[in-house]
Amino acid sequence: MKLTIVAAVAQNRVIGSHNALPWYIPEDLQHFKQVTVGKTVLMGKNTFDSIMNRIKKPLPDRTNVVITRKIDWKAPEGVLVYHSIEDALEGLRDNDEVMVAGGGQIYTQLIDKADKLILTEIHREVDGNVLFPYFAKKDWKEISRKEHDEFSFVEYERIK
């Protein structure tokens, strides 16, 4: 199984602010949809809650997988729930690719296992309370970059 992390990251590594995106970039939301539709999307409960708050339903046309420590949490129909990263990876091992959609704790736990990063690099610093984990760029090869005025879509593959 290939693990791909998908995130939008400000210059100061901020990815979230009080369980919401600290920006509104329609092109980024469209890009996220484009790279995740038809795939399995793994996320933490806070990220899932922020999606539910924004669109009022799980991500359509994707297998939504939520990791939560809350044993009694009830997910909407069709959403897969695991209670640890290890259980999720074991349960999803037959997938060709799993897209990791956050949040900060999930990214931190999986950054060293990821094979690919699909990042929207925001060309400014923003206020927020959730950070993307540090990763050594020397361990990654940039394979594509699409520049826009306020952001860039960048893909990296781990150097084997």
Features:
10 strands; alpha/beta; Dihydrofolate Reductase, subunit A; globular; 160 residues
CATH architecture: 3-Layer(aba) Sandwich
Here the CATH topology equals Dihydrofolate Reductase, subunit A
Q: What count of domains describes the coordinates? A: 1
The coarse overall form would be globular
Radius of gyration: 15 Å
CATH class wording: Alpha Beta
Count of beta strands: 10
Lateral strand order in the biggest sheet: 5-4-3-6-1-7-10-9
Q: What can you tell me about this protein's structure?
A:
The protein is globular and about 40 Å long. The two termini are 15 Å apart. The chain is an alpha/beta fold. The chain has four helices and ten strands, in the order ββαβαββαβαββββ. It has one domain (2-158): Dihydrofolate Reductase, subunit A (3-Layer(aba) Sandwich), CATH 3.40.430.10. Helix content is 22%, strand content 33%. The strands form two sheets. The protein has an eight-stranded mixed beta sheet, sandwiched between helices. A two-stranded antiparallel sheet has the order 2-8. The longest helix has 11 residues, at 26-36.
